[in-house]
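To: structure desk
From: M.T.
Subject: fold request, one chain
Message: Could you run this one when you get a chance? Sequence is below, nothing fancy, just the single chain.
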Amino acid sequence: MTSPAVDPTRRARPVRTGICRQGYPRVVSELERQFEFYLANQDAIVEEYADRFVVIAGQQVMDDFPTETEARSFAEATLQPETYTVQFVSAAQEPFPTVY
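Reply: Done. Structure tokens follow.
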């Protein structure tokens, strides 16, 4: 049995970001904007949501959950792919355990 031919001109899709109709740079840019929102508002977010997972979309906290699974389920059910990030909220400055 032979492997199917691989098209070298085909770009690989980003991991866990869904189908990107407008291209990879849009996905990275959206994720960066969500993470920059988290960093800019980290003190207030930590104060309100410490040790929880938050879903960030549209540069706002949409909701918070005790587990990543619950946060991801909410995001996947209510938001478009590639428009949100799931972030564990921690007072630690680094590392930032971001879940895309």
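Reply (cont.): The chain has one domain: 24-99. Let me know if you need anything else for the meeting.
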